[in-house]
Each structure stands twice: as structure tokens, then as C-alpha cells.
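Please fill in the sequence for the structure shown.

STRUCTURE ENCODING:
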């Protein structure tokens, strides 16, 4: 069933991630340090290498995909909510190679930043908390 909550815009954090940091882990660090419970995240830049995941809807498991070469970060789009009481970043990325071909998926740890400009739009509102969804096997917002 479709469900939603109302959220009110609070502020935006804009900045640049450091060279060589882990993209997902650094966004998570920012969320934890700033006690962000509800936000929208986006970023652009480039990565030295990437690890993304594809969710297999038959086996209900993530398949990890590694790309051990430089890629453009065309778009990171995601959100921050709470999982087990802590800020949790869920992000998907579109990346492109030297020929301009793109690939993408669920961002995983191991994606290393070359350069990255990010914006985090923080919201006030009811906490969206993740928990196991029986139908998909995913940690989805419990509503
Ligand atoms: Zn995902």
C-alpha cells in the first residue's frame, strides 16, 4: 500500500568530500555528526573505483558489482532516514566510463571519491524508520 508522511524543509548542507574517502561512509559520517534523521541527498563528481549492488528480485539478495577504474559520478540520488536508531544513507548512483557509457546501481562501501560535490536537504518531520519488509526482503520504511 502506498503511504507517506509530511516533512518540512529545514536547511541544506552543501560541500565537497575529500579525495580518497569512501563515498557512502563519508556521507554516513556527515549524517551521524549532524544528527540527520530525515534528508534528501544528491551529489556529482568522479570516483576512482566503484562498488555497487543489484538487487535480485528472485533470490532477494544483493549481487555486488565492482568497477576497478575511474568513473564519472553523473548522479548520486538518495535519502537519509533511521535504521536501528542511527542515520542511514540509502543512495543510488549513475556512473559513466571514458566512452560515455553509463551504469548504475545501489551504492555500496568501497566506492572511492576522486572529487565530489554534495547537497543534503534536511527535513523535520516524523522519523522514517527502516525495517524488514517481508514481501521484498528489503529494509524499507515502516509505515
Ligand atoms: Zn537501493
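FILLED IN BY: designer on duty
SEQUENCE:
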Amino acid at each position: 500500500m502506498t503511504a507517506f508522511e509530511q516533512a518540512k524543509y529545514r536547511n541544506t548542507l552543501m560541500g565537497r568530500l575529500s579525495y580518497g574517502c569512501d563515498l557512502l561512509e563519508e556521507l554516513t559520517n556527515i549524517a551521524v555528526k549532524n544528527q540527520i534523521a530525515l534528508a534528501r541527498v544528491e551529489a556529482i563528481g568522479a570516483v576512482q573505483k566503484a562498488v555497487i549492488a543489484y538487487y535480485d528480485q528472485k533470490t532477494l539478495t544483493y549481487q555486488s558489482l565492482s568497477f576497478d577504474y575511474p568513473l564519472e559520478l553523473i548522479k548520486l540520488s538518495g535519502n537519509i532516514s533511521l535504521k536501528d536508531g542511527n542515520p542511514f544513507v540509502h543512495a543510488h548512483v549513475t556512473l559513466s566510463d571514458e566512452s560515455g557509457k553509463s551504469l548504475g546501481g545501489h551504492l555500496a562501501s568501497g566506492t572511492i571519491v576522486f572529487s565530489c560535490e554534495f547537497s543534503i536537504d534536511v527535513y523535520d518531520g516524523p522519523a522514517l524508520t527502516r525495517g524488514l519488509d517481508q514481501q521484498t526482503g528489503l529494509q524499507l520504511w515502516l509505515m
